[in-house]
Amino acid sequence: MNKPVIVALDVDNSEKLQKILDKLGKPDETTIKVGMELFYHTGSELVKKLSDQGYNIFLDLKLHDIPNTVYNGAKQLARLGITYTTVHALGGSQMIHAAKEGLIAGTPVGKTVPKLLAVTELTSISDEVLKNEQNCSLPMNEQVVSLAQTAKKAGADGVICSPLEVRELREKVGDDFLYVTPGIRPKENSSDDQSRIATPSQAKEFGSSAIVVGRPITLASDPQAAYEAIKKEFN
Ligand SMILES: O=c1ccn([C@@H]2O[C@H](COP(=O)(O)O)[C@@H](O)[C@H]2O)c(=O)[nH]1
């Protein structure tokens, strides 16, 4: 089976959303990511609607709060028919565990519990920012491994990381864990807010379980051709 290319639908209205969805093919073969922009604009009703249409939904709200608040938030998200959701691993093991428990408690009987992915270091964070702004004494790869180990012990199903870290993560954290990787740029010399980037074929070579791609598809002159090319390169 093909590994998912998750399309990040970072748009601010339903018309733009529909235009992109029309290019992506059958809902039950498509995984879409609803992030802050779309969710804050349209709310949970849209997520339920997309789920009812058959899309696999990655709801990426990156919860990060005290464990009790995250438990109750995750419990609400589990009612929306989503496949994946996210927390920040930096929230700590108790918070990650609370998110998982909230998802279990909120999932309707007979439905599958959404997979919990913990964001390690955002793919926009560079080595310099990690050291000089986060004052982290570990190099990026060790910091990401450490956060992934914490997330796994706390009950997460996987992590969000850069493809550049997946090989080491598979060795040190295991293959029984999901490595979902944004920071995908089809051209190696891209320069934008992403920092730890890789091409779809590098992500495949390094062992990403799934890739998350936004602007290289949504801003392409032909989004359908861009999506198909990325799927081909990753699988
Ligand atoms: O570390 C992270 C965590 C999440 N993201 C999200 O992925 C997409 C990437 O979009 P592009 O347009 O391909 O850069 C975006 O929705 C982010 O919120 C991430 O990039 N890095």
TrEMBL record:
Q: Name one GO cellular component term.
A: cytosol
Stored SMART domains: OMPdecase (SM00934)
Give any Pfam family that matches.
OMPdecase
Could you confirm whether the keyword Lyase appears in this record?
Answer: yes
Residues annotated as domain Orotidine 5'-phosphate decarboxylase = 4-230
Mind telling me which Gene3D superfamilies this protein's record contains? Aldolase class I
Q: Recorded E.C. number(s)? A: 4.1.1.23
Q: Where is the signal peptide?
A: none
Instruction: Alphabetically list the UniProt keywords.
Output: Decarboxylase, Lyase, Pyrimidine biosynthesis
What are this entry's molecular-function GO terms? orotidine-5'-phosphate decarboxylase activity
Q: Per the record, what are the reactions this protein catalyses?
A: orotidine 5'-phosphate + H(+) = UMP + CO2
Q: Name one GO biological process term.
A: 'de novo' pyrimidine nucleobase biosynthetic process
Quick one: which pathway?
Answer: Pyrimidine metabolism; UMP biosynthesis via de novo pathway; UMP from orotate: step 2/2
Keyword Lyase recorded? yes
Which positions bind substrate? 10, 33, 60-69, 123, 185, 194, 214-215
Active site, UniProt feature: D60, K62, D65
By sequence similarity, the record places it as follows: Belongs to the OMP decarboxylase family. Type 1 subfamily.
Q: How does it assemble?
A: Homodimer.
Purpose of the protein = Catalyzes the decarboxylation of orotidine 5'-monophosphate (OMP) to uridine 5'-monophosphate (UMP).
Q: What name does this protein carry?
A: Orotidine 5'-phosphate decarboxylase
Q: Which organism is it from?
A: Lactobacillus kalixensis DSM 16043
This protein's encoding gene: pyrF
